[in-house]
Amino acid sequence: MKKKIAILGASGYTGAELIRLLATHPGFEITALTGERKAGQPLASVFPFLRHMALPDLTRIEEVDFGDIDLAFCALPHATSQAVIRDLPRDLRIVDLSADFRLRDPADYQKWYGKPHAAPDIQREAVYGLTEFYRDAIRSARLVAGTGCNAATGQYALRPLVAAGVIDLDDIILDLKCGVSGAGRALKENLLHAELSEGTQPYAVGGTHRHLGEFDQELSLAAGREVRILFTPHLLPMNRGILATAWLKGDAQRIHAVLSDAYCAESFLQVLPFGTVPSTHDVRGSNFVHIGVVGDRVPGRAMVAAVLDNLTKGSSGQALQNANLMMGFDETTGLMAPPVFP
Amino acid sequence: MKKKIAILGASGYTGAELIRLLATHPGFEITALTGERKAGQPLASVFPFLRHMALPDLTRIEEVDFGDIDLAFCALPHATSQAVIRDLPRDLRIVDLSADFRLRDPADYQKWYGKPHAAPDIQREAVYGLTEFYRDAIRSARLVAGTGCNAATGQYALRPLVAAGVIDLDDIILDLKCGVSGAGRALKENLLHAELSEGTQPYAVGGTHRHLGEFDQELSLAAGREVRILFTPHLLPMNRGILATAWLKGDAQRIHAVLSDAYCAESFLQVLPFGTVPSTHDVRGSNFVHIGVVGDRVPGRAMVAAVLDNLTKGSSGQALQNANLMMGFDETTGLMAPPVFP
Amino acid sequence: MKKKIAILGASGYTGAELIRLLATHPGFEITALTGERKAGQPLASVFPFLRHMALPDLTRIEEVDFGDIDLAFCALPHATSQAVIRDLPRDLRIVDLSADFRLRDPADYQKWYGKPHAAPDIQREAVYGLTEFYRDAIRSARLVAGTGCNAATGQYALRPLVAAGVIDLDDIILDLKCGVSGAGRALKENLLHAELSEGTQPYAVGGTHRHLGEFDQELSLAAGREVRILFTPHLLPMNRGILATAWLKGDAQRIHAVLSDAYCAESFLQVLPFGTVPSTHDVRGSNFVHIGVVGDRVPGRAMVAAVLDNLTKGSSGQALQNANLMMGFDETTGLMAPPVFP
Amino acid sequence: MKKKIAILGASGYTGAELIRLLATHPGFEITALTGERKAGQPLASVFPFLRHMALPDLTRIEEVDFGDIDLAFCALPHATSQAVIRDLPRDLRIVDLSADFRLRDPADYQKWYGKPHAAPDIQREAVYGLTEFYRDAIRSARLVAGTGCNAATGQYALRPLVAAGVIDLDDIILDLKCGVSGAGRALKENLLHAELSEGTQPYAVGGTHRHLGEFDQELSLAAGREVRILFTPHLLPMNRGILATAWLKGDAQRIHAVLSDAYCAESFLQVLPFGTVPSTHDVRGSNFVHIGVVGDRVPGRAMVAAVLDNLTKGSSGQALQNANLMMGFDETTGLMAPPVFP
User: Fold this and answer.
1) Mean pLDDT for chain B?
2) Which residues of A touch D234 (CB under 8 A)?
3) Is residue D278 part of a domain?
4) How many CB atoms lie within 10 A of CB C108?
5) What is the pLDDT of residues A287-326, one digit of tens each?
6) Residues of chain D numbered 171-200 and touching chain B (CB < 8 Å)
7) B296: distance to nearest CA of chain C, Å?
8) Dihedral over Cα of C323, C325, C331, C334: its sign
């Protein structure tokens, strides 16, 4: 019998991406979709690209009978999520896609998000959802916190290197290039086609991007000491995709070896041959991550470039991967469709 | 046991799209991939987005053991295809994606393609691959000729209307808007990003586009009389998608009723509620077709707009749909993945 | 001495485009810029691309001393414009870029804009700003109403043909392809990069687009009888540019001759050699219009394709062209810069 | 009397951009345009966007009467340029836009370009065309070598800092984001719209990009010691624009002060307020450079971001700026048109 799924916040991009991925999943069945402002509407009117699917209409969260639900994906806006999840049944298994449960320490949450956490006890219980590094904990978790899409991309490039100590931990620079869908369906001038296409600029500069909270927490954990990277994202005129360029001090060949070893058994993480660099074109719409390592003419320097699709592996695909683990399915179920190219 | 598949011409976009779709097909297994100029290379070096798949290396056609193959997709360039297919084993079942076998009459072929056909007897035997209208013949066909992507889009909008006689057959205007991948991986100045992005223009104007040969053949057949439409495509700054805007004389409500009836049992053809228009965004990367009908303030006039993804439903998805029929699978197998949005 | 210019509504795209064009104009000097919500801000904070210019800060309209102003461009939103202009000094010369004064008949205004006009007497006095057809009236006008960008493009393709009677006036189809900047800086989901890029769809279908009011008024005037065209625009993933494809009944060669004659003395209107079609790429950022005419394999049919940049010739460039006439400058002053390609 | 100009290699993007800029220049007159493969054609057939201009047809170089020419722009491909310039009259003043004369040392040329220079004596004579740093030498130069577009962008960000010694010279990282027009009109798969739009990737990785030759030469000169930066460009889905993100060790406020001082008298170089970052959108189609400086949460670290349009300030605009100096015009003549936004 299929597992029954609710998606809270189905009218945003990550909610829609979840439905897209679940459409071909043999073990999950969508039984509830919520969208506060659009409650009562058929999903096809919000997302016509899903009109061929037989799906429940959007409802309000309080209308959902959670007794019937095996797992809920929570794709609500940041800050909203924590209040909603606090009030959900304590035995409901949840994959949250917001930023609300990524940081374990309430002080860190307050520092990066500017206000106290509304559910600090649940916050402590949440498992960080970077699947390849928290697999066992995720299997038995009640609440899994999906990672930031930038934080995921950077960690795939850096985490094994930080853990192995093969790079200078005090000189890690992460120059990110991001597509726009990571900003969600927000109505902002800089997200308009007229303002965003045909150009690029940095944003959240100077070490202010909130995903730094995740980098600090996770890389320090991996290193066994405090790690503070430099990280600036750039907004690119494309919808999907993140390219993380990491500028590192260390031996490039050794870096390549460490990453290759770390990921050799992973279904979604592909380390390219040494000297080869990845393209976001090659992962679009998929759950795959491509990682390339190159040396430099300057000795002792290396560049690691990692790419993923922010809506899939960076968010909803990762969420489904985690849900597979939590419900006892093979981790890759529903996620092996190739990227869409061109 | 899985059916064994060869793809001839796997280094172009339609070949790659076939592999993408076959990746999640439960009944087909790719056992040969050919690419003349790139023979000997792993496919991952030609299409890195497919690098996670275990696939045979590219070979030359003459290296393929066709005795082992259940069905061959032929994704070769126009004109090349007919010479290759002429020399393939006579009992091999083939889905051809080129233009070579779309026109039944050798004189028509010569008229539109400017030279005599190299295999006129095989030409006569081929079944036109517009699945929804040739289903039975396709099931038992040895050779199915994939339709032109523009011709498919236009026919989905027009064919039931022409057959039912609910529109003026002497005044059909088809204004097409096409993404660039339909032109293939050809190295031409006008296909460069710098020349194509951020603008649009008509091309193949004045009734010269070769897909008119298909429209003439198929719409005349459906009407039982000669039909000659006006058709001009426009090249748009996008990769996938065709929008066919048909300007028609007829009663819009009746047109909507005829299309709704004709397609009500079809898995991939979705007629939108009356007055609603489709977007290519909503079918990208999928095998679905969305069709909308609207009336006009000028009485007796109607507009039908149809959208599909030229690489999927307009080419490789249609090819797989036909192959499913030929091999006894459910027609939708491997093709129900939703579009990718945004 | 330079003429003093005010721009009311300088924080939108047409206001910014005016400033861009005025930057190199030898006879105009910008002395006031207004923007209600952004009053008090330097323009460089609203439009950083203009930061090298010495410009007055944004103010509120009531802070402008109009006694000092020779000519005001009014780039305010539709409906706002009429109330503002009603209260401006009666001797101030004005070029309005909104839709408010395009229709001469108050009943037509009410029909297309859904409410009564707030300044019907001024409405009657306004001159329709399609420069090439209203040159003399514009020279002496107090108030010139800038045309709709779609209406301008269509009229450049059609107006001489309608006047000369060389096409069937009862069967004119105008299939438009538009860039997104024509929609202004509005915060709407369908204008987001994520929703607009990589795809296309029709909008304002069925004869409902407001620019039809202009087509009805102007083409009927040119024809000396009522003319009602069919017109549907399509939104394209590009920022600037309109391509109007007109499907006509008439002799293509004669159509080409009529257009060539009509425009042979025009600086900005370029009729291409017969059989050649234009591209929006070739007019981007400029005040030029390119027009192509082709015949069809179906006798008696023709296609006229016209392109322009909606922000320049379709709006702010046209406004400046009109202001040149009103202030006694050569019509082309400040407007001869070539398009930007690629 | 106007100065007579020849453009050698007028059928590429930089040639076309030169014509665009010269169109509104009061002191220059184009009297010869060459294009070997397209000799005999009117320029309007190669670049329809220039069709309103009265221009000479394309000829072959040997057909040009250089006795009549005051200054030649040489926009030929790399390697071709040196052979052509070697054979031009020795008293002809030349602005070369190729890479051929950027490096002073023949050994450096051979190292980066893989073969000996064909005109080493002329190579030694050429002045490096980064206007703001070589103004006096350019005024009297016979041959000015236009800089690499990436090299220009990086130097605007770095050069005053290197000269002032306010950054760690052994730890300069330059992460570049480039539009595609910098690659010219070359027919390559990765420059096709279908392969380039909607994604990004690094290229010329590991310290192999040829513009490093310029960085090495010029930054070492500025520093008075050898400087070797790390530099990797990334190809972005946009036509025009380069964003150089420099990751530096130094005091951000001091860096901002040095850049502000260095450029305070420059017409085209705009240093933004401290903490503000630039966008390529804000310089597109113009000769302006915007530069921003930000600090980081990690003390002692700074990021400098510089943007320009590779075809204008990065190539043809710079060339015209230099030609202005060489011919005695004000340096900004014909170059003050604002960017095109959106």
Assistant:
1) 97
2) 177, 243, 245
3) yes
4) 17
5) 999 999 999 999 999 999 999 999 999 999 999 999 999 9
6) 180-181, 185, 187-189, 191-194, 196-198
7) 4
8) negative
Residue of C205, C283, C291 to mutate for B, most B C-beta atoms under 10 A? C205
Q: Which of B52, B340, B341 sits opposite A270 (nearest CB)?
A: B52
Which residues of B are less than 8 Å from D190 in CB distance? none
Provide CB contacts within 8 A for A299, sequence distance 6+.
none
Below-50 pLDDT ranges, chain C = none
Pairing status of strand D289-295 against strand D301-308? antiparallel
Report the largest interatomic distance among the alpha carbons of chain B, rounded to a whole angstrom: 62
Beta strands in chain A (DSSP E): 3-8, 28-34, 58-59, 71-74, 93-96, 127-128, 143-145, 173-178, 201-202, 230-235, 242-249, 269-271, 289-295, 301-308
Span D157-176, pLDDT tens digits: 999 999 999 999 999 999 99
Q: D residues 112-171 near A, CB within 8 Å? A: 171
Flag if B282 and A341 touch (Cβ within 8 Å).
no
Contact criterion met (CB below 8 Å) for A101 and A82: yes
d(CA D96, CA D115): 19
Say whether both A78 and A170 belong to one domain.
no
Q: What is the mean pLDDT of the segment spanning A70-97? A: 96
Contact C13 A193 (CB under 8 A): no
Contact check, Cβ <8 Å, D188/B193: no
Q: Do D237 and B196 touch (CB under 8 A)?
A: no
Q: Are residues B157 and B131 in the same domain?
A: no
Q: Are residues C7 and C86 in the same domain?
A: yes
Considering CB atoms only, which of D181, D187, D238 is closest to B189? Answer: D187
What letter does residue D156 receive in the DSSP assignment?
Answer: H
pLDDT tens, B277-331?
Answer: 999 999 999 999 999 999 999 999 999 999 999 999 999 999 999 999 999 999 9
D159 and D262 both lie in a single domain = yes
Same-domain pairing of B131 and B248:
no
Q: Kindly list the residues from chain C whose CB atom is less than 8 angstroms away from the CB atom of residue B240.
A: 198
Are A105 and A186 contained in the same domain?
Answer: no
pLDDT score, position A1? 86
Instruction: Note the pLDDT of residue C90.
Output: 93
Active site residue D149: yes
For residue C23, which residues of chain D lie inside 8 Å, CB to CB? 336-338
Q: Which residues fall within 8 angstroms of residue B212, CB to CB, at 6 or more apart?
A: B112, B229, B231, C297
Give residue-wise pLDDT tens across range B223-262.
999 999 999 999 999 999 999 999 999 999 999 999 999 9
A45 interfaces chain D, CB cutoff of 8 Å: no
pLDDT digits (tens, 9 = 90+) for A11-24: 999 999 999 999 99
Tell me whether residue C179 is exposed, middle or buried, using C-beta atoms within 10 angstroms of its C-beta: 0 to 12, 13 to 18, 19 or more.
Answer: buried
- Where residue B129 sits, what CATH number does that domain have? 3.40.50.720
The mean pLDDT of D218-232, rounded to a whole number, is: 98
CB contact under 8 A, B277 and C237: no
Q: Tell me, what CATH number does B189's domain have?
A: 3.30.360.10
Per-residue pLDDT of B8-60, as tens digits, reads 999 999 999 999 999 999 999 999 999 999 999 999 999 999 999 999 999 99
Domain contains C155: yes
Do C214 and C261 fall within a single domain? Answer: yes
Size of interface C-D (CB pairs under 8 A): 90
Structural domains counted in chain C: 2
Is B332 part of any domain?
no
Instruction: Give chain D positions within 8 Å (CB) of B199.
Output: none
Neighbours of B62 (CB within 10 A): 9
pLDDT at position B62 over 90: yes
**D323-338 confidence digits (pLDDT tens):** 999 999 999 999 999 9
Question: What confidence tier does D102 reach under pLDDT thresholds 50, 70, 90?
Answer: very high
Q: Give A-chain residues touching B336 at CB under 8 angstroms.
A: 23-24
Burial class (CB in 10 A: 0-12, 13-18, 19+), C54: exposed
Does some domain include residue A342? Answer: no
Residue ranges making up the domain that contains D68? 3-147+313-327
Q: Are residues B317 and B263 in the same domain?
A: no
- Quick one: closest CA in C to A192, which residue? C192
B266 in contact with A, Cβ within 8 Å: no
Cα atoms in the Cβ-side hemisphere of radius 13 Å centred on C64: 33
